[in-house]
Amino acid sequence: MVVNNTPLGIGASILAGALWGLVFLAPKLAPGFLPLQLSAGRYLAYGLVAAVLIAPAWRRLLGLLGWREWRALLFLAFTGNIIYYVFLATAVREGGVAMPSLVIGLLPIAVTLVGSRERHALPLRRLAPSLLLSAAGLACIGWQSLSTGGVASLLALGCAFGALVSWTIFAVHNSRWLARLEGVSGNEWNLLVGVVTGLEALVLAVPAFAGGMGSHSGAQWLHFAGLVTSVAICCSILGNALWNVASRVLPLTLVGQMIVFETLFASLYGFLWEARWPGALEWAAMALLVGGVVACASAHAQKQD
């Protein structure tokens, strides 16, 4: 049963966004490693940590989960983790931190549009101001990205949109599964996704690391292991657990807008990493995206009143 607790959901989503934003820095902190290696390493670590944490509840959960649930876990792990992060790491590698993080700002629009079809959801006309503000922000992003020119920028933009599509699919399906689960907490569901992701990452590790182990020193591999483990714990374990809290207490049309905090924190980290102030279009994009969230939250507050 979904409980309407808007302050809890908003607070959890802000914290999740702050942690998820760190993901965008990982490719910059390990420049000599391929996106496929970063994805495989992160999710192997995620799966290992999740398996340790879920072990005490494993027998109980096996009795609660059927084939439909395991099939959903396989799907969620692949779309929301494996594919998403390969696209994202490639986008950051080719186009820097700021542009991909801002493109992910499209998630509020995508998830809100899907969520508007849910039962008891706000009609699109009530969400129109929020969607228009978000769309205007993304127009600023696209204009700046294309104006830089070059094949790398186009490749980065394409991969950023690939990440957007895969995570939209994950967010919608994950929210629906959390609403129907009984006897499984949001944190347990996150850990189960982690275990399945780790198993899928074992397959991904074969092409990711085959023949490339000798191209880095022992110190570089130690740095890589520490980085992907930190990302797994902070972003996948803690960040996803906080997001599942928000997904269970907020309607899909509102929780979709909360994803913008990942965009804002990732942009902040990116500007700090690049040691620069945002450009005019980047300022405008962030202001418009925040305005979209405020408009969406206001529309939901009016509905409750």
Explain the overall architecture.
The two termini are 21 Å apart. Helix 5 (67-95) runs antiparallel to helix 9, helix 7 (107-115) packs antiparallel against helix 8 and helix 12 packs antiparallel against helix 14 (280-304). The protein has 305 residues and is mostly helical. It is 81% helix and 0% strand. The chain is globular. The model has no long low-confidence stretch (mean pLDDT 82). It has 14 helices and no strands. The protein has helices at 6-20, 26-29, 35-54, 58-64, 67-95, 98-103, 107-115, 124-148, 151-180, 186-209, 218-249, 252-258, 260-273, 280-304. It has one domain (6-304).
Short structural summary:
The chain has helices at residues 6-20, 26-29, 35-54, 58-64, 67-95, 98-103, 107-115, 124-148, 151-180, 186-209, 218-249, 252-258, 260-273, 280-304. With 305 residues, it is mainly α. The longest helix is centred in the last third of the chain and has 32 residues, at 218-249.
